[in-house]
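Subject: design request, 75 residues
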């Protein structure tokens, strides 16, 4: 549901965004910018998770998990 909000926006930045996005209105520009920012952040989070999973898979191949989880390891 749309919410009316009043904000100060840099006019130069808004003009650049409108041109880059091909948007006709300020509202369309802001909404598309927010959509793109959310997608980029979600994609980065997903990429980090995949990287962490890959790292853990490699760690399993190289580390002896029984030793790492043993009491002897941490004395």
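Subject: RE: design request

Done. Sequence follows.
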């Amino acid at each position: 549901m749309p919410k009316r909000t009043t904000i100060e926006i840099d006019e130069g930045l808004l003009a650049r965004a409108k041109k880059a996005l091909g948007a006709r209105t300020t509202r369309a520009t802001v909404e598309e910018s927010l959509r793109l920012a959310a997608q980029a952040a979600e994609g980065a989070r997903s990429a980090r998770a995949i990287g962490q999973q890959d790292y853990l898979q490699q760690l399993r191949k190289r580390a002896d998990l029984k030793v790492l989880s043993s009491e002897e390891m941490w004395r």
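Helices lie at 11-21, 26-62, 65-68.
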